[in-house]
Amino acid sequence: MSATRSILITGCSSGIGRDAALTLHERGWQVFAACRKPDDCAALEAKGLVSPLIDYEAPDTIAAGLDKVLTATGGRLDGLFNNGAYAIPGLVEDLPTGALRTTFEANFFGWHDLTRRVIPVMRAQGQGRIVQNSSVLGFAAAPWRGAYNATKFALEGLTDTLRIEMRGTGIDVILIEPGPITSRFRANARLQFERWIDWKSSSRRADYERLMDNLYQDGTARFELPASAVTEVLIRALEADRPRARYRVTTPTTLAMIMKRTLPTRMSDRIVSNS
Length: 275
Hints:
single chain; 275 residues; alpha/beta; Rossmann fold; six-stranded parallel β-sheet; 6 strands
């Protein structure tokens, strides 16, 4: 890698992205902390970071944001951490197709667009790390989370394929699979729920009424870890000589993988349905 390593991180307005950007900056990385809102970019630049505007749902910002990064680095980039994503809580039967298209644009297609633009840069320099922030919900289905499950399952499949295809290029492709992490994720999910889900017209309105207590409370979830737990794993993924293909963060992620590997599907379904 170059003497001063460079990384582009998306979704840096809060939570995992913000923590990762500030921590890597302190470690001496040249950090480009992308946000999708100008005010959030300005706040990070006030802390000494370069913060390009990148909105996964706006392809023009992806191209312009990466151009800003490459201009600053002289055409190099050692790391990409795709991170920004959101959920739309609700039953699959109540999920409008337009809602699903929108969340795929933000959680999947935008990531793919940025990744494809970065790969030629890393190929030319003979090395690089592409780290995808997935989720326990990228391999374990859960009720009420169909849209998010779908985008993360798709991300994991595409990333696994890309990792295999990048063998021998010097480009490592890595997945991080967090469970519950302290962030604004639930607050952002509420906004999407209110935008898309007509729960009062649902055949399972009573179930939604029970969901509200959880959705509209901002308490700490069981086994929840701070964003720094993901940053610690990201550092290993970026700086290890031989990074793993996957890093699992939080106890629920580990338990979910054990359950997926050992239990029959229908038994797992019963456990998840009652959790």
